[in-house]
Amino acid sequence: MSIGSVPLRYLITMDIDRCMRCGRCIENCPYGVFRREGEQIRVNSRPCTACHRCISQCPRDAISLEERPVDYRSHPVWTTEVREAIYNQARSGKIILAGMGNALPYPIIFDRLVLDACQVTNPSIDPLREPMELRTYLGKKPSRLRFRETPGGDIELATEIAPNLQLETPIMIGHMSYGAISLNAQLSLARAAHETGTFMGTGEGGLHEHLYPYQDRMIVQVASGRFGVDINYLDRGAAIEIKIGQGAKPGIGGHLPGEKVCADVSCTRMIPLGSDAISPAPHHDIYSIEDLKQLVRGLKEATEWKKLVFVKIAAVHNTAAIAAGIARSSADAVVVDGFRGGTGAAPRVFRDHVGIPIEAAIASVDAKLRQQGIRNEVSVIASGGIRESADIAKVIALGADAVYIGTASLVAMGCRVCGACYRGLCPWGIATQREDLVARLDPDEASVQVANLIKAWTLELSELMGAAGINSIESLRGNRDRLRGYLLDDGILKVLDVKPVGA
Amino acid sequence: MCGIIGVVDRDRKGMSGASIKQALSMMNERGSGEGAGYVAYGAFPDYADYYALHIFFDNIRETKPKVEDIIERWGTIVHDEQIPTYEQPGIRKVHIPWRYFFRPDPLLMPRSTTPEEDIVTHLVMQVNSSVKGALIFSSGKNIAVFKASGWPEEVADFYRIQDYKGYIWLGHNRYPTNTPGWWGGAHPFNLLNWSVVHNGEITSYGTNRRYIESYGYQCTMFTDTEVVAYLIDLLVRRHLLPIPLAVRALAPPFWDEIDRMPEVEQQLNRAIRLTYGAALMNGPFAIVIANQDGIVGFTDRIKLRPLVAGECGARLYISSEEAAIRRIEPDIPRIFMPRAGEPVIGRVAS
After folding, report:
1. Would A490 be classed as within a structural domain?
2. What is the domain extent for residue A338?
3. Mean pLDDT across A249-257
4. What is the least distance, in Å, from the CA of A463 to any CA of chain B?
5. Residues of B whose CB is below 8 A from A131
6. Residues near A480 by Cβ (< 8 Å), separated by ≥ 6?
7. Sign of torsion, CA B17 B22 B23 B29?
């Protein structure tokens, strides 16, 4: 053992009696865990990421995996993660990169909130017998309507309603760029969005021409690198999203390594082949809220005020005030990305320590907008750490109009949350550009999986609403009376504007 | 449960409170003897131009001077009196009901297009949220609310409502679950000329309350019905929606139905739902709302609570039960059941 060596993270063992030496594990593992030596298959567990690809492909269930087979001396302060981070940094002198979302065991507020159901004094509504409305419109809404009398004495609407996106479910698929994920992955998501009457984000990676058939369901992103942005791109999308920040790494930019910039990615992003795609931390034309307002107007002008413009910010301490500023621009929606949001790659220190949870951010944004009488000026979209339909019901009750899901949609396509996306070797063909790996993801199959997930969650949402005696999603929105906090402290209950259980 | 009834005489002929009491008592099965109330429109012909502020005082010596001080900062008290009551075996007189006839000074609310109404609304919100032991429960012109904890007959006799005449009456027989025994919790709920009687439970209350509070209304009565009065005041008085469209905002058609409408109607209904989504009332309810010009009754979008209407000459009745209407008009020629969400409107002749 040398200084700073770390023990095995995962131990792979092969049951020799069960193994038929077919070699599928060798073919499937891009990390080189398996190799053939004569008649035998040998294992080197060290590069394993626990992606489960070998396990899923083994016809004999001969492979098993154990996490942390070697114990450190247990210690509540000097945890394994802390010690290993130090070994890594003492060796490299660098910032540690990590994938997926926040990995520290912060309490999850969603899991301390419970939903309400009807008993006796009001009947629950059976979604199988009665209409249940989850249709959601995103965009600016007037604060009041005006009418005028026609010469014939009829009353007609005088207020003009700005364009809104019509969603058949409040669940959208968040922005994951071509480059960060494969074209097959994007195609699968796009087809699922089309199938379920919702929308998906392109991320900051441009819009590949294979996605043009689904462009009416795509929200194109303009981020600080402006990759892939031209008028063709803006005109094709159903809406445009300005990305200011991301929940997994608030305050910093992005970096797509040159290895991932293949010919196709370079064309779509409009950058040279093999060059690193670096998105700076701030937009260099947005140094203040009025600059943002100008960009919003610029994009609106460029698209003749036909397209909606969303602004996405990471959930940070002052999110509510920032959202109120955004509401005063011409923006149609503000997306708030919580600190549990996923990412292909982020510095570990940001991923785990910067930002605030989505539950608190949405509650404070909704409250602030109502307080200032501008709640109708923008839609509020919650993202970052939405794991199941109950999370969606809860975050809508806290004030969101709709949600973006990211990681969950990848998991529906096979992702095992191994957290090695930044390696570019995703064995499931999702977060990679290597052709043989990408080919593993069949859009025909994966799109059905993702659509199924959205349908299943939508069904569960209607059941939850029906049980609460609500048949229209706008009556759940901001309805914090239908939530109770379970073992949450007074301070957070006040922020959420939710009563404790029993009250 | 709860039983509700409303009647309007479209020729503005006054009806004594005696018959509404009998009608309401037909629905005692729907109540529990812990709350009942009435409202009469046209009750004070001699003071018709002044706001009749009706207040429950817990204590005359301490709270009354405080409230009067607040009221007088905003205008003139033209006349005031203790509301006459007559002891009933089933009613414990926990409050002293008082009424003031009040003329607000519009100069004190500059920049408002409806300064008098805004002053009275402000007074109601301020007193109810900040003065302990005082509750303004009626604040319209020429309107009297009578409510207390008890059976409908007892409450009627306690105030002797047969001594009052009204061209509109609403009545409510309460089965409370939230605030039993509290006089403020009995219906009708009133703000300015709006009065509401309600049977049901609004499952969207949390959304509706936060919406209405962002317009300066304050919910102080611990019950969902109060928001109905404020929502209708916002939509009709401040946003100038015609009553049928205001009802449409509170109980709108389903998207499926809207999608099938002709283009212009689609636009109108979509605009209403987009703009007033937070005013949509969900959950089971049947409601009758009155103002000086008439009454309107409607139910939730899938009619989870009963509502029946009847017409007899100039009079329109809306009630939870046909039996209650027939108690007043045994031979009524027309009884009908409104569809879910569809308003029944009775306007007085202008």
Report:
1. yes
2. 147-500
3. 89
4. 15
5. 254, 256, 302
6. A363, A397, A398, A399, A496, A497, A498, B206, B210
7. positive
Q: How confident is the model at residue A468 (pLDDT cuts 50, 70, 90)?
A: very high
Q: Report domain extents, chain B.
A: 3-199+305-347
Q: How far apart are CA A391 and CA A359, in angstroms?
A: 9
Q: Which of residues 283-322 of B touch A (CB under 8 A)?
A: 283-284, 301-302, 304
Q: What percent of chain A has pLDDT over 90?
A: 90
Give the CATH number for residue A152: 3.20.20.70
Question: Both A69 and A184 in a single domain?
Answer: no
Q: What is the mean pLDDT of chain B?
A: 94
Residues A52-95 have pLDDT tens digits of 999 999 999 999 999 999 999 999 999 999 999 999 999 999 99
Give per-residue pLDDT as tens, A236-250: 999 999 999 999 999
pLDDT in tens, A161-187: 999 999 999 999 999 999 999 999 999
| Cross-strand bridge partners of residue A63 | A14
Residues of A in contact with B213 (CB under 8 A): 370
Which pLDDT band, with edges at 50, 70 and 90, does B296 fall under?
Answer: very high
Percent of chain B with pLDDT over 90: 87
Task: Give tens-digit pLDDT for A399-453.
Answer: 999 999 999 999 999 999 999 998 999 999 999 999 999 999 999 999 999 999 9
CA distance A100 to A109: 19
- B240 vs A468: CB contact, 8 Å cut-off? no
Q: Determine, yes or no, domain membership for A287.
A: yes
Does A225 share its domain with A79?
no
Q: Are residues A420 and A306 in the same domain?
A: yes
Q: Do A143 and B275 touch (CB under 8 A)?
A: yes
Q: Which of A135, A147, A481 sits opposite B205 (nearest CB)?
A: A481
Mutation for testing the B interface, residue in A369, A475, A497, A499 having most B CBs under 10 Å: A475
Q: Strand, helix or coil at A243? A: strand
The residue type found at A26 is I
Helices (H), A372-430: 389-397, 407-412
Q: Quick one: closest CA in B to A137, which residue?
A: B274
Q: What is the pLDDT of residue A51?
A: 97
CA distance B320 to B1: 10
Question: At A67, which CATH number?
Answer: 3.30.70.20
| Domain contains A136 | no
Answer whether B242 sits within 8 Å of A475, measured CB to CB. Answer: no
Nearest to B290 by CA among B190, B194, B147, B197: B194
Cross-chain CB nearest to B256 (options A131, A156, A164): A131
Catalytic residue numbers of B read 2
User: Residue B99 pLDDT > 70, yes or no?
Assistant: yes
Domain boundary among A94, A112, A138: A94
- Cβ A385 vs Cβ B225: under 8 Å: no
The sign of the torsion formed by the CA atoms of A466, A472, A476, A479 equals negative
Which residue in B167, B179, B169 sits closest to B225, CA to CA?
A: B179
CB contact under 8 A, B268 and A161: no
**Mean pLDDT value across chain A:** 95
Domain boundary among A72, A94, A116: A94
Do A159 and A83 belong together in one domain? Answer: no
DSSP bridge partners of B202: none
The answer to whether the CB atoms of A157 and B207 lie below 8 A apart is no
Mean pLDDT over residues B125-151, rounded?
95
Q: With an 8 Å Cβ cutoff, are B204 and A142 in contact?
A: no
Residues 353-412 of A with CB under 8 A from B: 370-371, 373, 375-376, 397
Whether the predicted pLDDT of A120 surpasses 90: no
Q: Is A119 on the interface with B (CB under 8 A)?
A: no
Q: Give me the residue from A370, A397, A471 closest to B302, CB to CB.
A: A471
Question: Touching check for A161 and chain B: CB below 8 Å?
Answer: yes
Among B175, B201, B214, B261, pick the best mutation site for testing chain A contact (most A Cβ within 10 A): B214
Whether A133 maps to a domain, the answer reads no
In angstroms, the separation between the Cα of residue B156 and the nearest Cα of chain A is 27
What pLDDT score was predicted for residue A503?
Answer: 93
**For residue A150, pLDDT beyond 90:** no
Just give the CATH number of B3-199+305-347.
3.60.20.10
